Amino acid sequence: MSPIHAYLTFDGNAAEAMRFYEKTLGGTMQMMMTVGEAPGTEQMPAEAKNRIMHASLAYGDGMLMASDAMPGQAYEGMKGFGVALTLETVAEARRVFDAFAEGGTVSMPFEKTFWVEGFGMVTDRFGTPWLINGGKPLV
């Protein structure tokens, strides 16, 4: 069975967000292609050429994928979901949480819970909502 992977949509800043995630999570960018680099897109409007058509970041056994909304498409932001991330240590989870919190919005501070040594919820500066678990399960 294939794992479930998150696919995020940004409004023109997918490349910046994905490079930030690559650096912060220590993953490996598998692909990042602009609309202008894709075959058969010669007729696309000039303002679409630098937007990301597809990006994929390998991280552990998972994959975080993304693209930019195309010009003229209504972009309503990210809502109604969260990207759950589980890290082996509390220290690593705290580091990632703090990086995502910089310029973002913390909705639940990172702290010990009844189910894990550390947990917090944050929406990063790119609008992605994260649920970060770290350390050993307590239940």
Describe the structure.
This protein has 139 residues and is an alpha/beta fold. 17% of the residues lie in helices and 40% in strands. It has a 4-stranded mixed sheet, covered by helices on one side. The protein has a 4-stranded mixed sheet with strand order 5-8-7-6, covered by helices on one side. Strand 3 and strand 4 form a beta hairpin. It is elongated. The relative contact order is 0.18. The mean pLDDT is 95.
What is the residue-mean pLDDT, rounded to a whole number? Answer: 95
Stretches where pLDDT is under 50 for at least 5 consecutive residues are none
Topology, number of strands: 8
Instruction: Characterize the biggest β-sheet.
Output: 4 strands, mixed
Oligomer: single chain
Strand order of the largest sheet: 1-4-3-2
Query: Could you say which structural class the secondary elements and strand pairing correspond to?
Result: alpha/beta
Proportion of beta-strand residues: 35-45%
What's the helix count? Answer: 2
Determine the fraction of residues in helical runs and give it as a percent range.
10-25%
Instruction: Report, as a whole number of angstroms, the end-to-end distance.
Output: 27 Å
Q: State Rg.
A: 16 Å
